[in-house]
Records
---
Amino acid sequence: MIILAAAEVLIVFAGIILFIWRLQFVFPDFAWFLLGFLVLTFFIHRDRLQDLGLGSRGLIAGMKAVLAPTLIISIALVLSGTGLGTFTTGISNWTRLSSFGRYFAWCLFQEFGLQSFFTNRILQVLKDPKKTAWASGVIFAAFHIPNPVLMPLTFLGGVILTRLFIKNRNLVPLALAQAIVGALTSAAIPVSWHHGLRVGPGFYR
């Protein structure tokens, strides 16, 4: 199972990178095949809903656990946005682009892929929560290349949220934390730096 889990991680990682940089433009339906493969692995490994971070178990504990890091990063972003003079304009632009609810749903989907799949499989291979968190952080950051704002932020967030996921096993608090930090990043950091939070080839547009 360890070799299988490692192979699955490599396949899905390569597939996502390939989709971001090429296939989304020439074969967008590839995303459905990739998602189907990912879900298939859940049945192969007989993952329980609790293993995937779905359900109510760990919700309250997870909310308490993400509170401090989310608050610290949020305060830092607010202070940065205030100092840069971009905070008010950023909020206005963010409101026009997307509702917080839709962004939360997107973050929940990302955390589902990162935690329910990557973290669980990497943990099977490495057998060490700390090493797994670092590996998940690197993977999450790699999906955000070449964005100079999102890469360090997603690496840090990936490490922190992975540790919390392994401990509490609930995706909702992680997605909420990511949505709050992401929204504040969009609002506080100049658009010329993060290019509308775009990644891959889209970053250059």
Note: The chain is about 80% helix and 0% strand.
---
Amino acid sequence: MKLEFYGAAGGVTGSHSVLDVDGFRVGVDAGLFQGSDARRGQTDFGHDPRALEALLLTHAHIDHSGRIPLLVKEGFRGAIYSTSATADLCEILLRDSARLMAEKAENDGRNREIRGSEPEARLYTEEDVAKALGRFKPVRYGNALELGNLSVTFRDAGHILGSSMLEIDLGGRKLVFSGDLGRPGTPFLRDPEKIAEADWLVLESTYGNRYHGDRKELGKRLKQIVLETIDKGGNVVIPSFAIGRAQDILFMLNPYAEKGELKGIKSFVDSPMSISAIDVYRRHPECFDAETMAMLERNDSPLEFPGIQYVRSRDESKAINAVKEPHIIISANGMCTGGRILHHLLHNLEREACTILLVGYQADGTLGRRLLSGAKKVRVMGREVEVRARIESLDGFSAHADKSEIMKWLDDFDEFPKQVFLNHGEPEASGSLAEAIRDKFAVQAVTAKGGESYNLA
């Protein structure tokens, strides 16, 4: 038996692994590379997709799902197994990904005429996405899926709606993929499930060397930043991933708006994808925790409150910039690498009264990382812009478990894995977590390397 890593090994994007059991090959995730990794291996899976019998998808985030249409285009003919909520979110994310690629190809075509540069080939089209979506087969949490000699059970990872850990029975021995491990107390979602035992564990390490703030204080800090900015006459611009993060922010703002503590401040959700994702949330209450279910039972939607406006059309989006009263804008995407957020950054970065609030991981090479690192000037949509706005960061919004939360989750194993493979982390994060695991549990903890395979003895 072999475990092969082809993405998110030594980095945090492009998640893709293959489990080979006596020639029966199953893929796990097929995500896009992003940030500084965006040009690395995007079109090369490192193996023959035609040899895969199936693909197991842990969740919908584009760094885990974004190359699925390309995988199908390259000859993969198996089924794609995920939870129903993940399949519904992938329909939104993958169609949007194809649309962005089409827009980029069009812009590259214009640049070729102007500068003579050669445009990059599109990875896939909306037609390719439709073909890929036709291969999805939904699986319920806790139900065993039989694949050849494997038995796979999807467990709730508590990361985003529909996110999963994979518990794979290999004829009496067990391999677990953590996927992206969520945090206890995440809005809407149940806490990550406990796993009783495993022989091998593939564990994410995005925040393997960092600690999030107290989630209980997060809402108070968010309200403080909003009120301080509004008092100066500025806008609060929140770059946010459409899936998970946008909904979490609304959940946090909800009680303050309903109590009148936001002084009638308008909150614009300017992201058609976020709005579509909210519709998916409404269709999948089976993923919700007890707190959210109790709110819904008393007809108190956490996604609706005074002052909120959902913006779908481009004209409505442009009209936000004409609003003179200070306001909140929540727009995709979270790392500021594309989407409508770029227009709002152009209109607000040079205003000292405004605040750009970063609420998630910023990959190396992204505009979000440059802002977080204190850049005084940045390029936005081809224009050089001076950064005069206040730049704030709230790491506590992260949907990834931090080092202490990961170690606590590991503590709950009844029989600890004999070997741990760390992926989905930058080298410093993976290395720090590997050392902590070796010290505490006295087991082999390996930082996975892209393009390498490991024998499961």
Note: The CA atoms of residues 5 and 17 lie 5 Å apart.
---
Amino acid sequence: MSPRWAAKVDANQHAIVKAMRKRGATCHLLFREGRGCPDVLAGFLGYNLLIEIKTEDGELTDREAKWHDWWRGTVYIVRTVNDALDILDRIARA
């Protein structure tokens, strides 16, 4: 039997995902994957975005930091709704 990882949801995750969806992004919640995997996979205007959601004072766990170091792509760290929408705005302007 494989170990079960505790899925911890940051308090701001719901609001951030809701705002991104309202802006037109599709969001698949990955936080249950555990093992340091980012919280959300978002699709927006043909781009795939891996997003780690943290509270204002939240830090990456050791497991998250190792995953981010291992991953050979971009992972955005988002702390507020405005952070998330800024990322979508940059993509829309590209």
Note: The mean pLDDT is 92.
